[in-house]
Specification:
Elements: E1 3-7, H1 12-23, E2 27-31, E3 47-48, H2 55-61, E4 66-69, H3 76-81, H4 83-103, E5 111-117, E6 126-128, E7 132-134, E8 154-155, H5 169-188, E9 191-197, E10 199-201, H6 214-224, E11 228-230, E12 237-238, E13 240-242, H7 243-255, E14 262-267, E15 273-274, H8 275-286, E16 292-294, H9 311-317, H10 325-338, H11 340-343, H12 349-359
Parallel strand pairs: 1-2, 1-4, 2-3, 4-5, 5-9, 9-14, 10-13, 11-16
Antiparallel strand pairs: 6-7, 6-8, 12-15
Helix pairs in contact: 1-7, 4-5, 6-8, 8-10
């Protein structure tokens, strides 16, 4: 049995991690500031110690074998205009947590787990048939062109050896967390792992959350808008992974043999699907005939394609994702139908976020 502390343990991923460790008989403690107004904190699993006053008190509450740091704000668009909020919460809070261990006379957990992200990869690698691999940027709907011959390039799946070029403040903060933890782990000989989550969804996520979650954003628009209006051209692709599978990956990582101080691993399904295809599937299940439109607008910080390569993690742990996207869409749409009135609002909340981005010149 392990004693586990999960910061951000009341969130979507945090609770999935708690559930997996509780099922294994671990002693799990949850610390969460309840900052997400779209999250239901009424039935937290694990022992809730969120009322502890300081981080120094927190890290000495028990001698934690594993510290799972899942506390972070997640939102590419919002991070672009709410810079200090994301840097303070994601980077500064991480530094304060690590400082608390230093201040505690050198006590370190056996393993520090970080909620990493695909965000630091940015646009990822693209291949030109004539000139090879590039790490391009883009500032519009079209996919990146080769910087040598200006011909279209093909997106490539992403493994952990790919270069990191974050496009958003959120992506920067997740890279900064990793850099900080890498140096800290080497300095204090503390074992650490970053799991770079790709696009995580929950099977009961609140559709009214406008900041993150492909399935929930689409559901929000189906329920509360005259049409499902999305950015760009619908050809954007995402590697979507269920929070339950992320919880299982987290547990597998804490049990693997580790002969390194710090390592990062991709956590995805190794499959990607276009936003157009996902939208079509959800409309067919929730409101057949609902208009679907793609605005042709580009939101600064967004990427065009993502697809993980998780070979390194699978070979080291034997973990495999279990929930297919088709199964998830069916289950999530069932959840939305059962709670339709609860999520029905006067206006699609993502349209309000869209107006904020417009005002800031980020679209």
């Amino acid at each position: 049995m392990k004693t586990v502390l999960v910061t951000g343990g009341g969130g979507l991923i945090g609770q999935a991690i708690v559930d997996r460790h509780l099922a294994a008989g671990d002693d799990v403690y949850v610390y969460d500031n309840r900052a997400n107004s779209f999250n239901d904190y009424s039935a937290l699993r694990g022992t809730d110690i969120s009322g502890i006053g300081s981080l120094e008190e927190l890290v000495t509450y028990r001698k934690f074998d594993i510290v799972s740091h899942q506390a972070a704000f997640v939102g590419v668009g919002e991070s672009q205009y709410n810079v200090l909020k994301y840097v303070d919460n994601n980077v500064t809070f991480t530094a304060k947590l690590l400082q608390a261990f230093v201040s505690n006379k050198g006590y370190m957990p056996e393993l520090f787990m970080l909620a990493g992200s695909m965000g630091p990869y940015g646009e990822g690698p693209y291949r030109c048939s004539q000139h090879g691999i590039f790490y391009p940027s883009r500032e519009g709907v079209a996919g990146p062109a080769c910087p040598v011959c200006a011909q279209p390039m093909m997106p490539q799946a992403i493994d952990e050896s790919c270069e990191l070029h974050p496009k958003s403040v959120y992506g920067f903060t997740k890279k900064a967390q990793e850099d900080l933890l890498r140096v800290f782990s080497q300095t204090y000989r503390m074992r650490a792992i970053s799991l770079r989550y790709f696009s995580v969804y929950g099977l009961n996520s609140n559709p009214n959350n406008p900041f993150t979650g492909v399935l929930s954003v689409i559901a929000n628009k189906i329920i509360n808008s005259p049409q499902v209006s999305m950015y760009e051209d619908g050809e954007q692709t995402r590697d979507l992974i269920c929070a339950d599978d992320v919880g299982a990956a987290h547990f597998a990582a804490t049990r693997m043999r580790q002969d390194f101080l710090f390592e990062a691993f991709n956590i995805g399904t190794e499959r990607s699907r276009s936003l157009r295809a996902i939208s079509d599937q959800m409309i067919a299940r929730l409101m057949p005939g609902k208009p679907l439109a793609f605005s042709g607008e580009y939101r600064f910080g967004d990427i065009k394609h993502s697809q993980a390569i998780c070979r390194k993690f699978r070979e080291m742990t034997g973990w495999e994702p279990k929930v297919t996207l088709d199964e998830a869409i069916e289950q999530y749409c069932r959840f939305v139908r059962e709670h339709w009135s609860r999520f029905s609002t006067a206006e699609d909340t993502s349209s309000m976020e869209h107006m904020r981005l417009k005002e800031k010149g980020l679209i």
